[in-house]
Hints:
It is a single chain. Strand 2 and strand 3 (about 45) form a beta hairpin. With about 290 residues, the protein is of the alpha/beta class. The chain contains ten helices and eleven strands. It has helices at about 20-30, 50-55, 65-75, 90-100, 120-140, 155-165, 180-190, 205-210, 230, 245-255; strands spanning about 5-10, 30-40, 45, 110-115, 145-150, 170-175, 200-205, 235-240, 260-265, 275, 290. The strands form two sheets. Strands 1, 2, 3, 4, 5 and 6 form a six-stranded mixed beta sheet that branches. The protein starts with 5 loop residues before the first strand and ends with a strand.
Amino acid sequence: MNKATLYGIGVGPGDPELMTLKAVRILKAADVIGIPVSERGGLADATGISTSERGISADATGTSASERGILADAAGTSASERGGLASDYGSTAFDIACRAVPELTQKESCRLVFPMTRNTEQRKKAFQTNAALLLSYLAAGKTVAFPVLGDPSIYSTYTYVSRLVAAAGYPTETVPGIPSFAAAAAAAGQSLGEDDMQIHIFPVLRSEEKGQTSAESSLSGSEDSSSLCSALSLPGRKILMKGGRFSGQVRDVLLEKNLSAVMVENCGMEGEKIYRSPEIFPDRAGYYSVILI
């Protein structure tokens, strides 16, 4: 392992046994663990599930978990020194990593807080703040591992921070992980692509984020696909990510178009569910849901 390097570690979709040997090796050898959490009315992991949604509230002092975590980690203490467990961090990626490498709770760590917003300036400020925190460790000659759900190259906050770290002259390395849609296909017993079949991946975004109101137009896929309907018109396999909150709306569109689909919720995690037909998609599913069409 190179010294003073930032590593983005893909920990896979949820099952710690799906982590690669390289991911485990680097996590064990790293000096510092950068733990991604997000804040939107409560502490959350990098995918945006807040502790308020999990039913976790502030402690008796009235301070939030993130406020306590930032103060504690600024001192460079480990989870064990604070008497905490991996689950106390509110980071799903870190929790998965700790199940494969329990000694991570003994390591020096820092919280990397990302706001759940699409406000460009707020996001930019958060990326710069977290990059500066990581650079302080790298400048001291310490390697830093940044665990990420799934694969670091797919919708990950690591991407933005690593660019800033690299621009500051420090090496970065991405350790790939199994993405959620690959694990979901395996769990459902489906193939993602055969022969010359095309594969398309779309994030399902909030209607208010796109300034749209109708059920179909609120489910925007990507910059070059303005709606769910246009995404569904593409040939081959369609993969919808981040769409659990809108599974009912997706269900209605799929039924209208007489399309078959499978949704996997919490793949590899506690409470994994497989819905093998749009007819049984719930109105709302967990954030960790992937729809295969």
